[in-house]
UniProtKB/TrEMBL annotation, chain A:
One of its GO terms (cellular component) is cytoplasmic vesicle. The lineage of its organism: Eukaryota, Metazoa, Spiralia, Gnathifera, Rotifera. Gene3D superfamilies: 2.60.40.1150, Leucine-rich Repeat Variant, TATA-Binding Protein. This is AP complex subunit beta. Keywords: Acetylation, Membrane, Protein transport, Transport. InterPro entries: AP_beta, AP_complex_bsu_1_2_4, ARM-like, ARM-type_fold, Armadillo, B-adaptin_app_sub_C, Clathrin/coatomer_adapt-like_N, Clathrin_a/b/g-adaptin_app_Ig. It comes from Rotaria sordida. It holds the Pfam family Alpha_adaptinC2. GO terms for biological process: intracellular protein transport; vesicle-mediated transport.
TrEMBL record, chain B:
Gene3D superfamilies: 3.30.450.60, Mu homology domain, subdomain B (2.60.40.1170). It comes from Rotaria sordida. It is a peripheral membrane protein. Its main location: membrane. Keywords: Cytoplasmic vesicle, Golgi apparatus, Membrane, Protein transport, Transport. This is MHD domain-containing protein. GO terms for biological process: intracellular protein transport; vesicle-mediated transport. One of its GO terms (cellular component) is clathrin adaptor complex. InterPro entries: Adaptor_comp_med_subunit (IPR050431), AP2_Mu_C_sf (IPR036168), AP_mu_sigma_su (IPR022775), Clathrin_mu (IPR001392), Clathrin_mu_CS (IPR018240), Longin-like_dom_sf (IPR011012), MHD (IPR028565). The keyword Repeat does not apply. Belongs to the adaptor complexes medium subunit family. Residues 177-424 form the MHD domain.
Length: 961, 425
C-alpha cells in the first residue's frame, strides 16, 4: 500500500467524491480524502473548491490531520480570503495549546497565510510566542516575524516586533539566536535601508558565542552577518578571525565559504606581513581545495569564488595548481572554470606542467572546452614570457592537426602573441597562411587578415591573399570587412607600387557600395588621409602599437573588491555587483575595509561609508512612514528618486574611469580598426574627446558656481568678518545666489551653531516683479552627511521686494559623499520659476560638537596611537594678543575643548580636542611662549584631510573680535 | 530564501512541487528546460540559472533534478547544500531517492519538506531529529498500524534533542548490544599520463561511523599519525577546539550512521598508487587497430586488489572490438562505444608477469571514418581492503560518560570513485 495511488485519481467527478469523503463521519475516510486532496495539490491540480470542507476538518484534534489541513490552507488561503477567516479561531486556540509542537505549528502556519485579515489576528499570538517558555516555539516565532515583514512591514514596526526579535539575539538557546539572526538578515535583505542589526562589539560577541552551538544553517546566517561588521581595529579583526577559523573545517560547504568571506574581508585590516596573515593563508587553502572534491554543483560555485580569491590574493592557492586539472568527465561548466583558474595560477615554475595539460585538453571531444583550452595556451604565452616559445610551438602542433575549430582558435590567439612579442615569431606566418581557406569564423578571418596586413612586407603574396578575401567582400561579417580595409591600406603604405589598384578597389567598394556607416566613414578617412598627406597616413596607420597587457580577463579592481565582500553569494557566481542583476531593489554597496595606518586618505571614507549605511536608512524609513519627506515631492523627479539618482550619479562617476578605455577602444577600432591603438599622440586626444561629455555632466553645476563665487569674493572680503552672537563664531551672510542668476531670487546665507544644532540661516529676497512660491530645498550628498531636519517651509508667497529670513536646522546623519573641498555643500533650491543649484562652504567649526571632551588619559593614549607622520605643525598668529584664558574661552565657545594646561620649559602648553559630527576626533597641542604672538600649533588626527580646515578655523576664531 | 522546489525526472516531467511561500507557476521551469536543452549531457546543466524575476538553482543526482526557486540574493552554496541534504534525507527514509520511491511516499515527502524548511529557512535537517518527528515508513509499522487501527506517521511529542546543545543526538537511546564501528574509507583521485607518470594524485578520505551506544557516550578517537590530516571537515559533533589543540577527535556521536570526518590529502604528499596498467592502443584503418592492456599490483603491502574494473570510452569511429581477456570478462557496447573489462581480484603475489591479467585483441574502425587522433582515456576502479593508502591509522577509541563496555571496530578500505582514476593512453 503506497501513496502513489493518490496520484492516479484523475477521473471526472473526482471533486464531488472527495467532498463527500471529507464530510464523512469517519476519521479514517477523512484522512484518506485529505491525502488525496493534498496529492492533487502537489501535482498542481486545482482543488480550491474544497476549501470549506477542508476547513471543517481543522477542528479535529489529530496532529497529522492538522498538518495536512494547514498545508492546504497555506496553498489556497490567498484565493479564498473570506473563507480563510473561518480558520482564525482555531489558530488562536492552537496558539494556547499545552503542546509546544502545536503552538509552534499554529504560529508558523498563520505566518504563511498571506491574507491581511488573518495577519491582523496574528500579532497577539506572535507576541506571546516570541516570549514563550519553550525555545522551539520561540525559534519558530522568530522566523514568523520575517514572514510577517514580508506581508506587512508597517505592522512589524508598529507592533515593535523588530525589537522583540533583537532581544532574541541574547536568548540562552543558540538555535533561537540563529533563527533570530536569520530572520533579521532576511528583513535587512528586503529593506537594506533599515538598520536591522546594531552591529557592535557586544552583539558580535554574542553571535560568535552562538556560532559554536547553533545549526549549520544558522552558522551561515551568523557568519554572513558578522561579515558586515566593521571591526574597530586590526586587533578586533584578528580576534574575530581567530574565533571563526575553526569553521573552515565544517562539513557544510556554505559554512566554509561564508567563513572564507569574513576572513577575506577582515584580512584587509591586518598587516599583510604579519605572521598571523601568513598562517591564515596556509589555513585558507585546504578548505578551498576540499570544496573541489564535492558534488559538481558545489565545485562550480566554489570555483567561481576561487576565481575571485585568486585575483585578490593569489598567494593563497599558488601551490595548488594540480587540483584544478580537468577530468574528462567533469561537467562542462566545471571544466571551463577550472581552466580559467589554471591560467591565473600559471607562472614560470609550473608552466611546463600546465602546458602539457592544456595540450591534452586540446584533443578532447567537447568543442567549447577545446576552444577554450587553445585560447588558454595563448594566454599562457602572453603571461609567462620565458614559455612563450614553447606555447607557440604547441599552437603550431595544434594547427597541424587541421581540426577546423582548433586552427581558428589558434590563429586568434597567435594574433595576440604577435602583439605581445613583436618581431619574434613571424617565421610561423607561412604555416598560418596554409590554413587560410579553412577559416570560416569571422574572428579567425579578421585575425588572419590583421596578421597579413601587419606583416605584409614579409609575405610575398600578401596582395594576392588579401585580394582573395576581397572577392567575397560583401558577404563578409562587418568585423572582417573593417579589418580587410585596414589591412589593404597597410599593404598599400608598405608596397605602394604594386597595390594601388587594390587599394582603390577597396576604397571604392566601402565608400560607394556599402550601407554600413562605420565602414564607409573609415573608408573616407583613409581616402582623405592617403590623398592629402600620405606621410600622416603612414604615421596613423602604421603607428607603433602599445603592448597588450600580461593579465587578460582581470576584473576591474573596485569591482573585484566589491565582489570579495559578496563571496558565496549569487554576485560571486555572476561576477557582477548585486545591483546590476537584482531588479528593483536598492542594494547597499559593500566595500572592503581599509587598514588604518597606511591608507590615511581612505580612512574617513570608510568611516563615512559605515555612517552612510545608517544614515541612508533613516532617510528611507521616513519615506516609508510616508510623512516627513512627502513635501519634497514638489521638487519633482529629483527629490522623488533622490537616493537612486544620486546613486546612479555616483555610479557613472565611478564608471567613467573604467568606461574611458572601453570607449576609447570602441571608438578607435571603429575608425581605425583593431590594430589602430595608434600609440602616443593620438590616444590622449581620443581620451579627452570621449570623456568630455561625462565631465561636463558631472561638473556643470560646479563650473557655474565658480563664476558665482568669484563675484561673491569681490563683494565680501575677509575683512568684513564679524560676530553676530557671543556664542559660536558665525560668519556674516554671503550672497549665495545673485538675483541675476536666481531669476530674481537672491539668496544670502551663512551657517551657525545654535543649541548644539547646525543651523543654515538664509535670507530670501525677491527682486523680481512677480511673487514667488512653492519653495523647496535639497542638499546634495556631502562629506559630513548634512541634511535638513525638516523640509523648507515657506507658507506665504514671497512678494516682490520682500525679504524673509529662514532658519533651517540640519542634522549630520544623511548620506555621505566625499566632496572637494571637504566642506563643500551643493544646494538645490526650487521655486515656481526654476531650480537653482549652487555651492557653498560650511565653515568647519560649525561641525564641532559640544561633547568632544575626553579625559587626559584617553587623550594621551590617542595621541600616542596616531603615528608621527600624521602630525601637522603650523605657526598660528595670535593677532589680537589674547591672554591665554581669553583664548581658551574663545575656543571653548566654538567647542574646542581644552583638556589640560601645563607649563613646560616656561611655555604654556594647551592640549585641546575637537570632535566632528561624524565622530572624528582631532587632537591639538598649542605651545604659547609668553610675550610672543606666534603660537606653535600641532595637530594629530586619524584623518589628516581635515587638518588644513582646522587650521583655518583656528585662525578665523583667533582673529575674530 | 528558497521559495519553491520542483522535482523533475529524466524525461522532463515536473512530478512534485513544493512552495514555501506563495505559489510560483510551473512555467518557471521552462527557463530550466531551455538551459537543459542547450546541454549535451544531463549533468551539464549549469547549477545557477537567472530568469527575469527568479533564480533557479538545481542539482542533478540519481537522474533527478531538484530545482529550487529563489527570489532574492542568497548564498547559492546554502541552497545547493540544502538540496543535497533533502536528497540525503529521502535516501535515508526510503532507501533510495527515485521518482517511484518519492511518489510512493509523497505524504511523508511533503511532511518532510515542510519540516525541513520554514518560509525558506532550514528548520530541522538532521535525520535523527526528523525521524522523531516523522516516522520513516517500514513494513513493521504498517503491520502495527493495521492491527491497532492507528495510522499516523507523525509523532505527537517534540523531539527532545532538537533544542539541546547536541541537536544531532536523541535522548534516551538504549541498546542491548553497545557497539561502535568506524569505516575509514579512502578514495583515490588520480590522473596518470601515458608514460605512467602520476600527474595528479589525491586522496579523499572519510570515516563513516555506525554507532549504537546507549545514553550519552562521549568518544575520543586518536590517530597514529594525525599530522597527515591538515585538510579536514568534521561533523558538527566534533569539538573543533580539541582538534586544534590536541589533534584528537572528541565528540558525542549521533545515534546510528553518520560521517564523522572527511579529509583530503593533496598532491604535495607522495602517495603510492597500488596498481599499474600497461597499455598499447593503436588505431589503424579497418580492423587492424591493436588493443592491449596488462594490469598488475604495485606496492599493495600484501593486500589483494579487489573488484578491479577498467572502462574505456572509445572514439565514435570505433565500430567494434574483438578482445579476449586472460581473466574476468570484457564487453563492448557498440552504441555507447564503451568498453568494460571486469577483472575481479588480483593477488598481490602475482609477480610473474605472464600470469598478470591482460586483454588483447583488435579494434575495428567504421569504414570511411578518419582515424582518431588521440587515444582514449582509461578509467580504473578497484578496492583494497584492510588498508588506508595514505597510511592513516586509528590509534585508539575511548569512551567516557557511560559505564558499560562497548564493542569497537575499525575497518580500512581504499577504493576509487567512478571516473576519478584516469589513465591517459
Amino acid at each position: 500500500m503506497t501513496d502513489s495511488k493518490y496520484f492516479s485519481t484523475q477521473r471526472k467527478g473526482e471533486i464531488y467524491e472527495l467532498k463527500a469523503e471529507l464530510n464523512s463521519d469517519k476519521r479514517e475516510r477523512k484522512k484518506e480524502a485529505l491525502k488525496k486532496v493534498i496529492a492533487s495539490m502537489t501535482v498542481g491540480k486545482d482543488v480550491s473548491q474544497l476549501f470549506p470542507d477542508v476547513i471543517n476538518c481543522m477542528q479535529i484534534d489529530n496532529l497529522e490531520l492538522k498538518k495536512l489541513v494547514y498545508l492546504y490552507l497555506m496553498n489556497y488561503a490567498k484565493t479564498q480570503p473570506e473563507m480563510a477567516i473561518l480558520a482564525v479561531n482555531t489558530f488562536a486556540k492552537d496558539c494556547n495549546d499545552p503542546s509546544p509542537l502545536i503552538r509552534a505549528l499554529a504560529v508558523r502556519t498563520m505566518g504563511c497565510i498571506r491574507v491581511e485579515k488573518i495577519t491582523e489576528h496574528l500579532c497577539e499570538p506572535l507576541r506571546k510566542c516570541l516570549k514563550d517558555e519553550d525555545p522551539y516555539v520561540r525559534k519558530t516565532a522568530a522566523v514568523c516575524v520575517a514572514k510577517l515583514y514580508d506581508i506587512n512591514q508597517q505592522l512589524v514596526f508598529d507592533q515593535g516586533f523588530l525589537d522583540l526579535l533583537k532581544d532574541l539575539l541574547s536568548d540562552s538557546n543558540p538555535m533561537v539566536v540563529a533563527n533570530a539572526v536569520a530572520a533579521l538578515s532576511e528583513i535587512s535583505e528586503q529593506s537594506p535601508q533599515i538598520q536591522v542589526f546594531d552591529l557592535n562589539g557586544p552583539t558580535v560577541n554574542k553571535l560568535l558565542t552562538a556560532l559554536n552551538e547553533c545549526s549549520e544553517w544558522g552558522q551561515v546566517f551568523i557568519l554572513d552577518t558578522i561579515a558586515n561588521y566593521p571591526p574597530k581595529d586590526d586587533k578586533d579583526a584578528q580576534s574575530i578571525c581567530e574565533r571563526i577559523t575553526p569553521r573552515l573545517a565544517h562539513a557544510n560547504s556554505a559554512v566554509v565559504l561564508s567563513t572564507v568571506k569574513v576572513l577575506m574581508k577582515f584580512l584587509e585590516l591586518i598587516d599583510p606581513n604579519s605572521e598571523f596573515v601568513q598562517n591564515l593563508y596556509r589555513k585558507l587553502a585546504p578548505p578551498l581545495v576540499t570544496l573541489l572534491s564535492t558534488e559538481p554543483e558545489i565545485q562550480y560555485v566554489a570555483l567561481r569564488n576561487i576565481n575571485l580569491i585568486v585575483q585578490k590574493r593569489s598567494d593563497i592557492l599558488k601551490n595548488e595548481m594540480k587540483v584544478f586539472f580537468v577530468k574528462y568527465n567533469d561537467p562542462i561548466y566545471v571544466k571551463l572554470e577550472k581552466l580559467d583558474i589554471m591560467i591565473r595560477l600559471t607562472n614560470s615554475n609550473n608552466i611546463a606542467q600546465v602546458l602539457a595539460e592544456l595540450k591534452e585538453y586540446a584533443t578532447e571531444v567537447d568543442v567549447d572546452f577545446v576552444r577554450k583550452a587553445v585560447r588558454a595556451i595563448g594566454r599562457c604565452a602572453i603571461k609567462v614570457e620565458p614559455a612563450a616559445e614553447r606555447c607557440v610551438n604547441t599552437l603550431i602542433d595544434l594547427i597541424q592537426t587541421k581540426v577546423n575549430y582548433v586552427v581558428q582558435e589558434a590563429i586568434v590567439v597567435i594574433k595576440d602573441i604577435f602583439r605581445k612579442y613583436p618581431n619574434k615569431y613571424e617565421s610561423i606566418i607561412a604555416i598560418l597562411c596554409e590554413n587560410l581557406d579553412s577559416l570560416d569564423e569571422p574572428e579567425a578571418r579578421a585575425s588572419m587578415i590583421w596578421i597579413v596586413g601587419e606583416y605584409a612586407e614579409r609575405i610575398d603574396n600578401a596582395d594576392e591573399l588579401l585580394e582573395g578575401f576581397l572577392d567575397g567582400f560583401k558577404d563578409e561579417n562587418n568585423q572582417v570587412q573593417l579589418q580587410l580595409l585596414t589591412a589593404i591600406v597597410k599593404l598599400f603604405l608598405k608596397k605602394p607600387t604594386e597595390t594601388q589598384e587594390l587599394v582603390t578597389k577597396v576604397l571604392t567598394l566601402v565608400t560607394q557600395e556599402t550601407d554600413n556607416p562605420d565602414l564607409r566613414d573609415r573608408g573616407y578617412i583613409y581616402w582623405r588621409l592617403l590623398s592629402t598627406d600620405p606621410k600622416a597616413a603612414k604615421e596613423v596607420v602604421l603607428a607603433e602599437k602599445p603592448l597588450i597587457s600580461e593579465e587578460t580577463d582581470l576584473l576591474e579592481p573596485t569591482l573585484l573588491d566589491e565582489l570579495i565582500c559578496h563571496i558565496g553569494s549569487l554576485a560571486s557566481v555572476y561576477h557582477k555587483p548585486p545591483n546590476t542583476f537584482v531588479e528593483g531593489r536598492f542594494i547597499m554597496k559593500k566595500k572592503l575595509p581599509f587598514r588604518t595606518g597606511i591608507h590615511h586618505e581612505y580612512e574617513d571614507i570608510t568611516t563615512m561609508q559605515t555612517n552612510q549605511q545608517q544614515q541612508q536608512q533613516q532617510v528611507v524609513i521616513s519615506s516609508n512612514v510616508g510623512s516627513l519627506i512627502d513635501d519634497f515631492d514638489i521638487l519633482g523627479p529629483m527629490s522623488n528618486t533622490s537616493s537612486t539618482t544620486m546613486n546612479t550619479f555616483e555610479h557613472t562617476q565611478q564608471q567613467t574611469s573604467s568606461a574611458i578605455p572601453n570607449l576609447l577602444d570602441d571608438e578607435l577600432s571603429s575608425i581605425l580598426g583593431l590594430d589602430s591603438n595608434v600609440g602616443g599622440h593620438q590616444t590622449p586626444m581620443m581620451n579627452t574627446n570621449t570623456s568630455l561629455p561625462i565631465n561636463r555632466l558631472t561638473t556643470s553645476t560646479g563650473n557655474d558656481l565658480d563664476d558665482l563665487f568669484g563675484d561673491i569674493n569681490l563683494h565680501t572680503g575677509p575683512s568684513s568678518i564679524s560676530f553676530s552672537s557671543p556664542n559660536t563664531l558665525v560668519l556674516p551672510k554671503e550672497i549665495w545666489v545673485s538675483a541675476q542668476k536666481g531669476k530674481g531670487l537672491e539668496i544670502s546665507g551663512t551657517f551657525a551653531r545654535r543649541n548644539n544644532q547646525i543651523v543654515m540661516e538664509m535670507d530670501f529676497t525677491n527682486k523680481a516683479l512677480q511673487s514667488m512660491n512653492d519653495f523647496a530645498l535639497q542638499l546634495n550628498r556631502n562629506s559630513f552627511g548634512l541634511t535638513p531636519l525638516q523640509p523648507l517651509q515657506i507658507l506665504n508667497p514671497l512678494f516682490p521686494n520682500q525679504t524673509i529670513p529662514i532658519q533651517l536646522i540640519l542634522n549630520a546623519n544623511g548620506p555621505i559623499m566625499k566632496m572637494d573641498p571637504l566642506t563643500n555643500l551643493q544646494i538645490a533650491i526650487k521655486n515656481n520659476i526654476d531650480i537653482f543649484y549652487f555651492n557653498c562652504i560650511v565653515p568647519i567649526h560649525i561641525l564641532f560638537v559640544h561633547n568632544g571632551e575626553i579625559d587626559k588619559m584617553t587623550f594621551l593614549q590617542t595621541w600616542q596611537d596616531i603615528p608621527e607622520n600624521n602630525e601637522i605643525k603650523y605657526q598660528l598668529q595670535n593677532i589680537n594678543n589674547l591672554s591665554i584664558d581669553d583664548l581658551q574661552n574663545k575656543l571653548r565657545l566654538n567647542n574646542i575643548h581644552t583638556i589640560t594646561r601645563t607649563i613646560i620649559e616656561q611655555k604654556e602648553m594647551l592640549y585641546q580636542t575637537i570632535k566632528l559630527t561624524n565622530g572624528i576626533f582631532i587632537l591639538i597641542e598649542l605651545k604659547i611662549t609668553p610675550g610672543n604672538r606666534t603660537i606653535a600649533f600641532s595637530l594629530k588626527t586619524k584623518v589628516p584631510d581635515v587638518a588644513n580646515l582646522i587650521i583655518q578655523a583656528y585662525e578665523l576664531i583667533l582673529s575674530s573680535n | 530564501m528558497i521559495h519553491s522546489l520542483f522535482i523533475i525526472n529524466g524525461s522532463g516531467d515536473v512530478f512534485m512541487e513544493k512552495h514555501w511561500k506563495t505559489v510560483v507557476g510551473k512555467s518557471i521551469c521552462d527557463y530550466f528546460f531551455e538551459a537543459q536543452s542547450k546541454c549535451a549531457n544531463s549533468e551539464d546543466v549549469p547549477p545557477v540559472i537567472a530568469t527575469p524575476h527568479h533564480y533557479l538553482i538545481n542539482i542533478f543526482r540519481n537522474s533527478l533534478y531538484f530545482v529550487a526557486v529563489l527570489t532574492n540574493e542568497i548564498a547559492p552554496l546554502f541552497v545547493i547544500e540544502f538540496l543535497h541534504r533533502i536528497m540525503d534525507v529521502f535516501e535515508d527514509y526510503f532507501g533510495e531517492c527515485t521518482e517511484t520511491s518519492l511518489k510512493d511516499n509523497y505524504v511523508i515527502v511533503y511532511e518532510l519538506l515542510d519540516e525541513m524548511l520554514d518560509s525558506g529557512l532550514p528548520l530541522a535537517t538532521e535525520t535523527n531529529i526528523l525521524k522523531e518527528l516523522i516516522k520513516p515508513p517500514n513494513i513493521f509499522r504498517k503491520v502495527a498500524n493495521l492491527v491497532t487501527g492507528d495510522n499516523t506517521n507523525i509523532s505527537n511529542t517534540l523531539p527532545s534533542s532538537q533544542l539541546s546543545n547536541i541537536p544531532w543526538r536523541r535522548m534516551g537511546v538504549k541498546y542491548t548490544n553497545n557497539e561502535a564501528y568506524f569505516d575509514l574509507i579512502e578514495e583515490i583521485d588520480a590522473i596518470i599520463d601515458r608514460n605512467g607518470t602520476t600527474i595528479m594524485c589525491e586522496i579523499q578520505g572519510y570515516i563513516d561511523c555506525c554507532v549504537k551506544l546507549s545514553g550519552m557516550p562521549d568518544l575520543t578517537l586518536s590517530f597514529v599519525n594525525p599530522r597527515l590530516l591538515d585538510d579536514v571537515s568534521f561533523h558538527p559533533c566534533v569539538r573543533l577546539k580539541k582538534w586544534e589543540s590536541e589533534r584528537v577527535l572528541s565528540f558525542i556521536p549521533p545515534d546510528g550512521n553518520f560521517r564523522l570526518i572527511s579529509y583530503h590529502i593533496g598532491s604535495q604528499n607522495t602517495i603510492s598508487i597500488p596498481i599499474y596498467v600497461k597499455h598499447n592502443i593503436q588505431f589503424r584503418e579497418g580492423s587492424n587497430g591493436r588493443f592491449e592492456l596488462t594490469v598488475g599490483p604495485k606496492q599493495t603491502m600484501g593486500k589483494t586488489l579487489e573488484s578491479v574494473v577498467i572502462e574505456c570510452a572509445m572514439p565514435k569511429s570505433v565500430l567494434n572490438c574483438t578482445l579476449t581477456p586472460t581473466q574476468g570478462k570484457s564487453t563492448f557496447d557498440p552504441v555507447k562505444k564503451n568498453l568494460v573489462w571486469d577483472i575481479g581480484k588480483i593477488e598481490s603475489n602475482t609477480q610473474n608477469t605472464t600470469r598478470l591479467p591482460s586483454l588483447r585483441g583488435n579494434i575495428v574502425l567504421s569504414t570511411g571514418q578518419p582515424i582518431p587522433e588521440s587515444n582514449p582515456i582509461l578509467n580504473v576502479r578497484f578496492t583494497l581492503n584492510q588498508i588506508a593508502i595514505s597510511g592513516i591509522r586509528v590509534q585508539r577509541v575511548d569512551m567516557h560518560g557511560e559505564k558499560y563496555k562497548p564493542f569497537k571496530g575499525v575497518k580500512y578500505i581504499t577504493t576509487v570513485k567512478k571516473g576519478r582514476f584516469q589513465i591517459r593512453t
